[in-house]
Amino acid sequence: MADEKSSSEPRIPGKEAMQPELRKRFYELVSTQASDKGFVVTLDGRSIRTPGKAQLVLPSSELAGELAKEWERQADFIDPATMIMTKMANTAIDGIQGQEAAVRSELVKFAGNDLLCYRADHPQELVQRQKTAWDPILAWVHTTYAAEFAQTAGIMPVTQSETALNAIDRAFAGEDALSLSAMHVLITLSGSALLGLAVRVGHLTPKEAWDLAHVDEDWQIAQWGEDAEAQERREKRWSEFSAAARFLELLT
């Protein structure tokens, strides 16, 4: 009877995707080894594969070691939500490889609507905080890449010059599928292609970029306080952001 009742319950669209059934841990030993193409993570001697069934090959033993740690940390069940670097590698191989130009184009679009270019028009304290935090990054981009980004205040949109966007496109030109996967995480979580680029080339530490991406939010917290749910979401995003930065660091 219990099974009959369960099967007759209404299905909520999307619920299955939000609450997937976790797979039981099926392996004992996690290790890494060199292959003819790079480095792989093995589970009981068998190299792991992506959801698309491709072999997951990494360019450095250090990066393979970080993925191995994610698999080793799994307890009775495998929770993909806790395997951030593995997810980035899977995305690169299954979703980006062969589509690098299109993904780079998407990242350049973020620069066209970059967080650093959209400023508050009031109150003055927030206006000044944004100026102090963000103007040096725009100046660095201008000096380093000959890309001058226009700013706007309030709700008015701003159109960036083709020259500026082409310069950012050239800055991303050397990125491969693996690095683009991690860059996508940095840029989408921060809302800024320019901050993502600054982390990529070592101009900013991940924590510096993260703080710059949250100038507005931190000002709001200073005025009104922070609730526990918002803090938890931010901590989760920071874990992903810092993992993406570490992923990039270990690619070479």
Structure description:
- It is a single chain.
- The chain is mainly alpha-helical and 252 residues long.
- Helices cover 57% and strands 8% of the residues.
- It contains 12 helices and 7 strands.
- It has helices spanning 2-8, 15-18, 61-72, 84-96, 100-112, 124-145, 162-171, 177-190, 193-200, 206-213, 215-224, 228-249, and strands at 23-24, 30-34, 39-43, 46-47, 77-78, 118-119, 152-153.
- The strands form 3 sheets. The chain has a 3-stranded antiparallel β-sheet with strand order 2-3-4. It has a two-stranded antiparallel ribbon with strand order 1-5. Strands 6-7 form a two-stranded parallel ribbon.
- Helix 6 (124-145) links the parallel strand 6 and strand 7 (152-153).
- The longest helix has 22 residues, at 124-145.
- The relative contact order is 0.11.
- Residues 1-18 have low confidence and may be disordered.
